Fold this sequence. Notes:
Radius of gyration: 22 Å
Amino acid sequence: MRFIKKYGQIRAKTVVMKKGIHPDNYRFVVFKDMSNGYSFISRSSAPTRESVKWEDGKEYPLIKLEISNTSHPFFTGQKMLVDTAGRIDKFKKRYEKKK
């Protein structure tokens, strides 16, 4: 249910979601930030071949992330993005030579 304010009045509007567009195979998955090693568990339907043992002793599918909220400059307050693939360094090297 969603509330809408129209002409100064607040009304309740029922929102109906479309059927059959969401996947049925949601399961618990461990997401691991490869830049700093931070891991968290959430639900996902993304495919993966790897698995990892979580803190509760159970084994869960593993999805590796290049960046998450613990390493993204917007959330950490850092000005420079730490690039695991070295793309920033390659870019700087390439254009330093032309100067």
